[in-house]
């Protein structure tokens, strides 16, 4: 059984989808802990599903490295097989990436390498492209530059706003995340670092 830690910053919609998938007896992974960089609304999902959680507030640390070391320390307690960044809106320090990657994955609301960074949906609309997408990647030291594990296109419709487009991307992102976690657990997906 693959053990998974999930790190969030917000509402945790991807986290909830993963928790619901993992509730099924035939799903080969279990979320063992949920962490956040603030008092995130998504921590309520962990509580509802009886999953332990922790918070490592960003603003309580003098540096990104100090924050990352405490975060890594919390993760070490649980020795997860896989760490999922699910809407964590902080870049992990290189030492944390080095410790957990390639068993460190992230979801992103764009068809990478198109539109990396915190505003992928907004950037796709601004570029006036016909389609964007969702991706699941291995985290490396770059911004959304790690090896791509799964991705799928999502069309941009006339009249789309950042909100409406993001709402159509989210279900695709959730499905890809669940498929990737299942694939890692069953050995169908092999995690490798960027070369």
From TrEMBL:
GO molecular function list: phosphoribosylglycinamide formyltransferase activity
GO cellular component: cytosol
Residues with site note (Raises pKa of active site His): 144
Parts forming coiled coils: none
Sites where the protein binds (6R)-10-formyltetrahydrofolate: 64, 89-92, 106
Residues at the catalytic site: 108 (proton donor)
Keyword Cell inner membrane carried by entry: no
Catalytic activity field: N(1)-(5-phospho-beta-D-ribosyl)glycinamide + (6R)-10-formyltetrahydrofolate = N(2)-formyl-N(1)-(5-phospho-beta-D-ribosyl)glycinamide + (6S)-5,6,7,8-tetrahydrofolate + H(+)
Residues reported in the UniProt entry to bind N(1)-(5-phospho-beta-D-ribosyl)glycinamide: 12-14
GO BP, sorted A to Z: 'de novo' IMP biosynthetic process
Key words, A-Z: Purine biosynthesis, Transferase
InterPro entries from the UniProt entry: Formyl_transf_N, Formyl_transf_N_sf, GART, GART_AS
EC numbers, comma separated: 2.1.2.2
Gene3D superfamilies on file: Formyl transferase, N-terminal domain (3.40.50.170)
UniProt-listed Pfam families: Formyl_trans_N (PF00551)
Domain annotation Formyl transferase N-terminal: ranges: 4-181
Pathway participation: Purine metabolism; IMP biosynthesis via de novo pathway; N(2)-formyl-N(1)-(5-phospho-D-ribosyl)glycinamide from N(1)-(5-phospho-D-ribosyl)glycinamide (10-formyl THF route): step 1/1
Domain of life: Bacteria
Family: Belongs to the GART family.
Function: Catalyzes the transfer of a formyl group from 10-formyltetrahydrofolate to 5-phospho-ribosyl-glycinamide (GAR), producing 5-phospho-ribosyl-N-formylglycinamide (FGAR) and tetrahydrofolate.
NCBIfam families referenced in this protein's UniProt entry, alphabetically: PurN (TIGR00639)
Name of the protein in question: Phosphoribosylglycinamide formyltransferase
Source organism: Microbacterium saperdae
């Amino acid at each position: 059984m693959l053990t998974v830690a999930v790190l969030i910053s917000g509402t945790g919609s991807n986290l909830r989808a993963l928790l619901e998938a993992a509730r099924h007896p035939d799903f080969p992974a279990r979320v063992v802990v949920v962490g956040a960089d603030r008092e995130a609304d998504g921590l309520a999902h962990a509580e509802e599903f009886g999953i332990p959680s922790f918070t490592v507030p960003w603003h309580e640390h003098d540096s990104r490295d100090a924050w990352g070391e405490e975060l890594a320390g919390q993760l070490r307690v649980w020795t997860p097989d896989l760490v999922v960044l699910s809407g964590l809106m902080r870049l992990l320090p290189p030492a944390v990436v080095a410790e957990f990657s390639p068993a460190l994955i992230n979801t992103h609301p764009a068809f990478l390498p198109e539109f990396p960074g915190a505003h992928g949906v907004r950037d796709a609309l601004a570029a006036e492209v016909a389609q964007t997408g969702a991706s699941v990647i291995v985290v490396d030291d770059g911004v959304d530059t790690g090896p791509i594990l799964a991705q799928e296109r999502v069309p941009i419709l006339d009249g789309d706003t950042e909100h409406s487009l993001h709402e159509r991307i989210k279900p695709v992102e959730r499905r890809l995340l669940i498929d990737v976690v299942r694939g890692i657990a069953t050995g169908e997906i092999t995690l490798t670092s960027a070369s």
